[in-house]
Automatic annotation (TrEMBL):
Residues 348-425 form the DUF7586 domain. It holds the Pfam family Beta-lactamase. This is CubicO group peptidase (Beta-lactamase class C family). It comes from Nonomuraea jabiensis. InterPro entries: AmpC-like (IPR050491), Beta-lactam-related (IPR001466), Beta-lactam/transpept-like (IPR012338), DUF7586 (IPR056008).
Length: 443
């Protein structure tokens, strides 16, 4: 399967082959999605004596969290919960029930990273009731809302939230509401043939050790699932916007909005609502990484460029962090996306008359008419507050982004009123209500 040219496919495969050989990965699969469709697949190494295919299962670890988060957001959209709700409103008597659903989704609740059990990734899981009994104030490591602190425990709680509100298990809810509608039939809780065995590779010798696999039970929502390159490519397309009705596009965009920062001063890695965010080289990627004993996986989507990328490997550690961005760089170098053709569109004469130069005090702004009756207000030359606006039924305009997101723009005959800020055709028009009657300009 390939929608890319031969030279592109060869360059992509070489990067994958270098990774598999130099990082000593028993098997490695990768794929690229473009405009919601599979564009390239590559596999190196061996699974049961043969190269991995699009149907080979690997464990995907914490990518599971992003799928559970979608079910939580579906509950929100249905009105079954609010993100600002404390957990105890839906799980009465739950330890640490004062933490909000939004804080758990974004890893800003301050919860401990790991559960108060044995090493949960390498030992059989405990039932939910057992986990809840073990949780107490000691598992709160930071003031809720203060900072980003990744928590597997938080998603165990969210999985139980889904189970209680849906009246079934988190897994069955995920299967019926997300996996089945997306055609992800080979994403399962336990492995099925053909699947890769998870290995640890010895750091100083070319030998491997099989890693354990088990049911994580209460911790399952944090990293239980297995999947295939085929299914994970469908997930990449979903993250890029091809939701197939599983989730509203605006809700998915909300999940991609940054809430916390994960890498200190560099501010290139963050977290939204159940989704990891990454900004390498100007790209805006959303997705999730995953690791469990013997397995590594990551999936990213760039909705702005219509591209997704993923890898799946059966090794505990040792891979370079640049594999997926390198694959995107190769795709961009060999087959850059062509811009959409510009075409004229019909314009409302009244809106057309609003376009052009406006002034916020002495600062000039440009008002442009966008497709589908939207407006864009941007400072001339950049370097200021820019926002887009969409019309409302009452004749006002709602800010979509930037400083004025959620704010109201009102259009008067001789000025714009943007949440009390007055924009006029000339700097400080004395006829405008504010400042009104300003003196003359002078030397």
């Amino acid at each position: 399967m390939s929608q890319v040219g031969h030279a592109t496919a060869r360059a992509l495969l070489r990067r994958l082959a270098v990774e598999q050989a130099e990082s000593r990965v028993p098997s490695l699969a990768a794929a690229i999605v473009r405009d919601g469709r599979p564009a390239w697949f590559g596999g190196r190494g061996r699974v049961d004596g043969a190269p991995p295919t699009q149907a080979t299962q690997y464990r995907i670890g914490s990518i599971t969290k992003s799928m559970v988060a979608v079910v939580v957001m579906r509950l929100r959209d249905e009105g079954a919960l609010r993100l600002s709700d404390p957990l105890q409103e839906h799980l009465p008597g739950t330890p640490l029930g004062h933490l909000t659903i939004a804080q758990l989704l974004s890893h800003t609740a301050g919860l401990t990273a790991e559960p108060p059990t044995a090493w949960w990734e390498r030992t059989p899981g405990v039932p939910v009731a057992d986990l809840l009994e073990r949780l107490g104030p000691g598992e709160l490591k930071h003031r809720p809302g203060r900072r980003f602190h990744y928590s597997n425990v938080g998603f165990a709680l969210l999985g139980e939230l889904v189970a209680r509100l849906r009246g079934t298990t988190w897994l069955k809810a995920l299967q019926s509401e997300v996996l089945d509608p997306l055609g992800m039939d080979d994403t399962t809780a336990r492995p099925r043939a053909p699947h890769a065995t998870g290995y640890a590779v010895h750091p100083y010798a070319d030998v491997v050790l099989a890693e354990p696999e088990h049911d994580a039970e209460a911790m399952g929502p944090a990293g239980q699932l297995w999947s295939t390159p085929h299914d994970l490519a469908r997930w990449a397309a979903f993250l890029g916007g091809d939701t197939a009705g599983v989730l509203c596009g605006d809700t998915l965009a909300e999940m991609r909005e940054p809430v916390g920062v994960d890498d200190g001063d560099s501010w290139s890695v963050g977290f939204g609502l159940g989704l990891q965010l990454y900004r390498p080289g100007g790209r805006r990627l959303a997705g999730h990484s995953g690791s469990m004993p013997g397995f590594l996986a990551t999936v990213w989507a760039d909705p702005g460029d219509g591209v997704g990328v993923l890898f799946m490997a059966n090794t505990t550690s040792g891979m370079k962090g640049s594999l997926l961005t390198d694959l995107l760089d190769i795709l961009e170098e060999y087959e850059p996306r062509l811009p959409d053709e510009w075409q004229p569109v019909a314009a409302d004469p009244g809106l057309l008359a609003l376009t052009g130069l406006w002034h916020w005090g002495p600062k000039p702004y440009t008002l442009r008419l966008l497709p589908e009756r939207a407006l864009s207000l941007e400072p001339v030359g950049g370097g200021g507050r820019a926002s887009r606006f969409v019309p409302q039924a009452d004749g006002t305009w709602l800010g979509l982004d930037g400083y004025y997101a959620g704010e109201t723009l009102r259009v008067a005959p001789d000025h714009l009123d943007l949440n009390t800020f007055i924009f006029t055709r000339t700097p400080y028009d004395p006829q405008a209500p504010v400042p009104g009657g300003a003196g003359d300009w002078h030397a």
